[in-house]
Backbone:
């Protein structure tokens, strides 16, 4: 009996750990889970380059207002799946309509530009809603910050990416802060 209780307890602990780190709607990391992953990536090789990218869906509330919350959820899932397919699972949902993804290691600015532009283009092309014959665009703003080596603070890096993302919203284009 005690062995069974122990096994069930261990199984439940694993489920709770997954729930604590995962966004229930999308299956990607939640903010807590991604922040923990980013810290591990940075600490693994503190002298490596680390890139933090924030993406925010522009005027997201319009999806919920005009098409209902289910359609808003579909937009969130579409963005999460697009990011997962292009950024190897190093993707998180900060909450609402904001996503974060990161790279640790050697990635050239050209490669990063190519990956981000691909995601940007896919989202702007949009997805086909079930009751529409045309694609619905998902415009977004993206802020990117790169830190190279040394001891940098992840929270400050994320704040800089957030500022870059809001610059993108104001300017209507991607903003890169290096």
Residues:
């Amino acid at each position: 009996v005690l062995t069974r209780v122990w096994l069930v307890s261990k199984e439940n602990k694993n489920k709770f750990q997954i729930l604590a780190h995962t966004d229930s709607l999308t299956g990607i990391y939640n903010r807590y889970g991604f922040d923990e992953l980013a810290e591990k990536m940075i600490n693994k090789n503190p002298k490596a380059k680390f890139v933090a990218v924030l993406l925010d869906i522009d005027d997201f509330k319009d999806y919920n207002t005009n098409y209902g919350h289910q359609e808003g959820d579909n937009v969130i899932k579409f963005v999460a799946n697009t990011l997962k397919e292009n950024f190897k699972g190093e993707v998180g949902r900060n909450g609402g309509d904001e996503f974060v993804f990161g790279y640790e290691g050697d990635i050239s600015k050209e490669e990063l530009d190519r990956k981000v532009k691909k995601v940007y283009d896919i989202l702007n092309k949009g997805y086909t809603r079930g009751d529409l014959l045309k694609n619905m665009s998902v415009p977004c703003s993206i802020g990117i910050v790169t830190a190279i080596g040394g001891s940098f603070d992840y929270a400050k890096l994320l704040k800089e990416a957030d500022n870059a993302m809001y610059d993108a919203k104001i300017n209507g284009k991607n903003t890169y802060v290096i």
